[in-house]
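Much of our argument rests on the idea that a fold can be written as discrete symbols. Part of our work consisted of pairing the sequence of a single chain with a tokenised description of its backbone. The amino acid sequence and the backbone structure tokens for this protein are reproduced below.
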Amino acid sequence: MPIRAVLWDIDDTLFDYSGAERAGVLRHLAAEGAVLTRSDAADAVRRWNEVMRLHYGRFVRGELTFGEQRRERVRGFLGELLADHEADAWFARYREHFEAEWRVFSDVLPALDAVEAAGMRQGLLSNSAAATQDHKLRRLGIRDRFEVLVCSDDLGCAKPDAAAFHAACMAMNLEPDEVAYVGDRWDTDAAAAAEAGLVGIWLDRSGASPEPGAATASRIAGLAELLPLLVEDGARRPAGPAPGASVDIGGAVLPH
């Protein structure tokens, strides 16, 4: 069956999250009065990334709300038991510097144009909060390129759960095998999409070593490689749920 739509991950796929996070936290620390050596700066970036991954993972697993994971990131980074309002204020100041660094990758707009010109529909599936991602996409100027924005905080489940991918397909009224999913993570994006019956495509910008079982999904180094893969239907299609199979997604999905 031909691919009729592309679902996209957002952070570090369309949007350079890692670059903005790195520059944003250093700008914020400088504004807070920190004087950092090169070694100090590298350590600060590493620690901020570590606490982000730890507590964002807890949000994805349903252990924290979106606001709570932000507060825990601040507390973990500073090593201080701040009150909620203090952690919120620190994060808000960081957020200003983070947002000032927001950029899409240089290959994103040409890829979106090419997919649209090929007659394929486009949507988004993200392990995040819908309001946060909607704000981000509008600020980046690309929100209107996508029919739907499906986020884990609305679903009650998250990638790599197959139910999240099926929910996004249902939001577009398409079967999983009519949809390709593009993301920067092998495990939670490409492999999980393939297991859910979509065409999984791993956007490996860093040239990482192939993951075990990488044959279940296609791998591209940049988005210039995407359209030929879709048009030629060269993406590997793993075994997955049969078209029309009943899937419990835990509630309706509405476009944003």
Summary: The two ends are 28 Å apart (CA to CA). Confidence is low (pLDDT under 50) at residues 234-256. The beta strands are 5-8, 121-126, 149-151, 179-183, 199-203, 218-220. The longest strand covers residues 121-126.
